[in-house]
Design goal:
Length: about 80
């Protein structure tokens, strides 16, 4: 068995223009919440495979096989 088969594969997530590496098997919701809190980002839009996610309940379980991006949400005015 290869060590990489144990869930140690990493994927890159684009968070407000910054590339962040996470484990492919990490839970998306909890991991994004932690990263966004650490960065002080409280207003954002999440894109999964190019589609905006309206509810965090619609996020995939893990990062594997998904292209995930977080963009800052800024209100006009």
């Amino acid at each position: 068995m290869n060590v990489n088969e144990l869930g140690n594969n990493k994927v890159t997530v684009n968070i407000t223009g910054e590339k962040v590496e996470v484990h492919a098997s990490d839970p998306v919701k909890e991991t994004l919440k932690k990263i966004l809190q650490e960065k002080g980002i409280d207003s954002f839009t999440i894109l999964v495979d190019g589609e905006e996610v309206v509810s965090t309940n619609d996020l995939p379980e893990q990062f594997a096989d998904h292209d995930i991006e977080v963009k800052r949400y800024v209100k006009a005015g």
